[in-house]
Amino acid sequence: ALGRVSNVLPSAAAVDVLAALTPDGDDGLRSLGCAHRLHGTSLAVAEMLRRLGSTALAFDSPESLESLLDKVARPAFECQGLAATRDAACFVLWAVARGVCDQEIVSGNLDMILRLLVCSSLLDPNIVVRRAASAAAQEVVGRLGCTTADDAGFLFVNLVDYWTVANRSYAATTLLGDVTGKLCVGDPHLVPFVLDHLCRLHLRSPDKKTRELAARSIGAVVPFVDEGRLSEYISHTLLPASLEEAASHPTTFRHGALLAVSEVVVACENLSENIKYYSDEGPPGMFLNHFQGMARPGAQRWIAQREDFGCPYCTLIRNVVPKLEKARLYRGRGGEMIRAAACSLVQAVFYARSCIPLKPNTIPRYIQSINSSIRHFTAAVQIAAAEALMALVVCRPGEATDDEITKAEADYVKKLEVTDENVAARRGYLLALAVLTRAREAPPQPEVVSLFIREATAWPEHPISKDVVDAETRRWAVVGLLAVAEKGGSEVAAKVVRALVRCMVIDYATDTRGDVGRWIRQDAARGVSALVALALAGGLSSAWREALLADETLAGLIAASVSRLDHVRVVALRGIEDIAMGRRRQEGGAFALVGAVGSAFSL
Prior knowledge:
This is Tubulin-folding cofactor D ARM repeats domain-containing protein. GO terms for molecular function: beta-tubulin binding; GTPase activator activity. By secondary structure, this protein is mainly α. The protein has a domain of 196 residues. Strands 1-2 form a two-stranded antiparallel sheet. Helix 4 packs antiparallel against helix 5, helix 18 packs parallel to helix 20 and helix 26 packs parallel to helix 29.
């Protein structure tokens, strides 16, 4: 309505209407509490720009348009409380491209417009806003007449469109790195603008997933930050936020800052090796990647070498976790989030072997911190601690002595023999043993293998006590058995395969959560099928091959092939086909017929 009314008013009156919408010194527009007012203001300004144009609104210089963008567009883009307001901000920039006739005025503000659109189209949590920002970018670039391949706007719209911004994770990591790498050459203020946007808004978000994705976004732009600015950002922004008391910073911001420090450390380590990986799973060495055997390599890009952290920053980063523990910042609401983020930082420090050197007494201190988290009752904390332990063994084999690792392993075994040990702690100990078995080059100790077999088959009764029967514990024991199989000890092949088959067929435990035994059955079925394929490929010894191609294994897979779970049936049928194919080569007969049928269906 304001746009239609202003369209029939004299030019001076239209300028007065615009001035009334955007008064000087009005802090209400920048307040998140006035999100609805900012939404209406943005829509009204966009309509006036679209209908009246720059001449009627007296946009006679780039500074006048810059003032409007600073008063309306930027606060609207930063309004996290209402997605409609951010969508209206995209409408404002779209209307600028349609209504401002003088290209010189828009060109003078193109850098600011592209900065706003980069943050909105790639980092906004709402897909509607991301797509609206990409459409506004195409309108701005199209009406500015960008024709050469070196124009910043052309480079931007060549990467960002309706489809590429659909996947939020891809847009905020891989695509953000590509766009930043192309645009930061012509606009040196782009990277600081993006970092400031992430730190002020997304790392403080109440949504945990948004904070995690923001940390990964910071890691994606690290390759394009100059040394001085990166050091200042770490020492003045991230580290203080990580260590401040809850009275100074909320727990959510401390959690986001810890994750951001971890991603910065990992990114700098990747740069020190002259290569940067962008992937959905995180840094190499993570436990779940190794367990599933499906670590998908992300897009690779060679980037110039960056120097290591300076000694003061190495010391600051190394001391973050001890200071957190000393200040008891794990206590209270959200403490498990901080503990998991601290374990992620320890993992990143272990991974950064060339950027962050560790003193001899630092690793035992970190192992002590990992042990305190490995017995935590939250699964996310236990997995984060296990990933940190695996990073230590894989990435720093020369710094972590065998005695330290063996001592930790023996301590886990000893605590699993205690009758009154907490059930949640037992889960963590089994997970830690599975990780160590997977990561260490030496074959597992016989008592560790026996422990895995006992815990994996401990249903419906447990040899120690009926109070320690637990589905998650059996699941991690199955993971440990699969790690034992990959190490290839021939003397335990038959026992391990027999235990896996039993888990795949027998475990139908239920509790208030439903059929919790399905976790054990599906992991065992996946593992047995993968081991059969590995044995047929020649990756295991003859003892393992004989045990895996036995009738008992085939019968277990046939039983799993009629499971109610779709993915269990799929992997079981794949294992049956592999066994049939392998035994057809050896025995012929009925297995040759089954193998021929399987081959026909696979085609």
